[in-house]
Amino acid sequence: MAKESKELGDRGENAACEYLAKKGFRVVERNFRSQQGEVDLIAYDGSVLVFIEVKNYSFRSFGSPLGAVRKSKRQSIIHAAQTYLMKKNIRGVNCRFDVVSFNTGTDGSVAIEHIKDAFGVN
């Protein structure tokens, strides 16, 4: 990943943490990695454990945030989530997968899109 892209991603994750905290989420993990995938953020939304993919776009980007999370990316996030649950010995908890995106316009404005339950395990 190019340095500029990594910095953009880090800024997006920091902004997502702030945004989610204001919405009442409690972030418990950042950048959890398994052999086959990574989850940007893991948080509780009440009693629901949420695995969150963060997308941070500049004005040069096109397409929807959900469209950017293709099948292979979803599968790697699901694998990482399953690994997290196993390693932390978490059972009997409702889980979901969200996508949070930030799109910065040419004028510096930021549009936030939070897609709850963006995809499932099926």
Description:
- With 122 residues, the protein is α+β, with helices and mostly antiparallel strands.
- It has a single domain (3-119), classed as Trna Endonuclease, Chain: A, domain 1 (3-Layer(aba) Sandwich), CATH 3.40.1350.10.
- The protein is built from 3 helices and 5 strands; from the N terminus they run αβββααββ.
- It has helices at 3-22, 65-68, 71-87, and strands at residues 26-34, 37-45, 48-57, 95-104, 110-119.
- The protein is globular.
Shape type: globular
Mean pLDDT: 86
Helical residues, percent: 25-40%
How far apart are the termini?
A: 29 Å
N-to-C order of helices and strands: HEEEHHEE
Can you tell me the residue ranges where pLDDT is under 50 for at least 5 consecutive residues?
A: none
Portion in beta strands = 35-45%
Largest sheet: 5 strands, mixed
Blueprint of the fold:
Blueprint: H1 3-22, E1 26-34, E2 37-45, E3 48-57, H2 65-68, H3 71-87, E4 95-104, E5 110-119
Parallel strand pairs: 3-4
Antiparallel strand pairs: 1-2, 2-3, 4-5
Key features?
single chain; 122 residues; alpha+beta; Trna Endonuclease, Chain: A, domain 1; five-stranded mixed beta sheet; 5 strands
Write a short abstract of this structure.
The chain has 122 residues and is of the alpha+beta class. It has three helices and five strands.
